[in-house]
Amino acid sequence: MALQQLQKAAVVIRENGSFRFEIRQTPIPSIQPWEILVKLSATSICGTDIAMAAGYVGPTCDILGHEGVGRVVRIGSGVDPSTVKVGDRIGIAWLRDICGNCPCCAVPGGEVRCVEQLNSGRKHDGTLQEYCTVPNRYVLKLPDELNIPDPVIAPILCAGVTAYSALKAGAAVPGEWAAISGAGGGVGALGIQYAKAMGYRVIAIDVGPTKEGFCLEQGAEVYCDALDTNLKDTVRGFTSGAMAKAVVVCAGSGAAYRSAFDLVAYFGTIVCVGIPPPDELISAHPLQLIDNGIRLIGSAVGTRTDTLEALEFVRRGMVNPAIHLSTLDDLNDISGKVASTIGKYVIQFEKFSGEHEQE
């Protein structure tokens, strides 16, 4: 059965210092011989999508989005048919393609820092459309036995795997304390769940009392207000002086990073995830690291292997992302609520119906 020629897509329009999404009928993307075409069933909305739409992160494509799930409907003529077939379930994330040859790609797990990487919505049209193309050499094929609904998978492809890989980088031992700064946000909330599932005792840190109940529901053992002037002593009391062996900073705040140095344990790790404005710098004397044996490390999203590991926690029921189902037509309404809404907005498309066409 041949595919239809047009699809529904959300095109970002920037004017008068603001932005909006215009829902249009656009041509279904054509594929190169080395690509596959995926019909999306769901895509969740990331805070980065809104920042990109607002123009805060430089040039982008007109179609954003990078947390999509769908099924293969077309295969390029140069794709080895033994690697992927029509009907396979595919995840489409921030990292859309890598070169495989640079110094980063040569390091195990270094693909997330590939110097030639193509990102969804930045250099390649994203998932806020019904169909997407994916290069076969970097396809994320989701196993048949992964019995998770597509709308639940979508948030794990960015927020979930970002939190999970950051906790892995934190290198704490089960039973030790892990602090999540910015715990009430999309990445932070999933970080709480992953940290608990990985065996850590979790300290959730965010601003104000309204986030406390939510963070405790996600699995945090204690909640601390980031504006507490005695935050260091508060954490010291909760941990019986041990402090946090891993501090994962998901908040995009220079103040959150500065306070992390007060909360980390001897020989602990501060993991950088949140991105503050350019003028909010970290200020620390090397002796803080030298005397206390502290590691300071950056963590960026995750590899395809990290993603599959992160999804396994969901399959086992140990991590359950909070989602709000919506449609592409609602995008303008929900785009202004992403930062303040607890949980993730997930846009649903029509389900895969088996249509396909071989290139």
From TrEMBL:
An annotated GO cellular component:
cytoplasm
> Which principal EC class is assigned to this enzyme?
oxidoreductase
Instruction: Write down the required cofactor(s).
Output: Zn(2+)
Spell out the molecular function terms from Gene Ontology.
Answer: alcohol dehydrogenase (NAD+) activity; zinc ion binding
What are the Enoyl reductase (ER) domain coordinates in residue numbering? 14-347
- Assigned keywords, A-Z: Metal-binding, NAD, Oxidoreductase, Zinc
Q: Which domain of life is it from?
A: Eukaryota
What's its EC?
1.1.1.1
Q: Which family, according to the similarity comment? A: Belongs to the zinc-containing alcohol dehydrogenase family.
Protein name (record): alcohol dehydrogenase
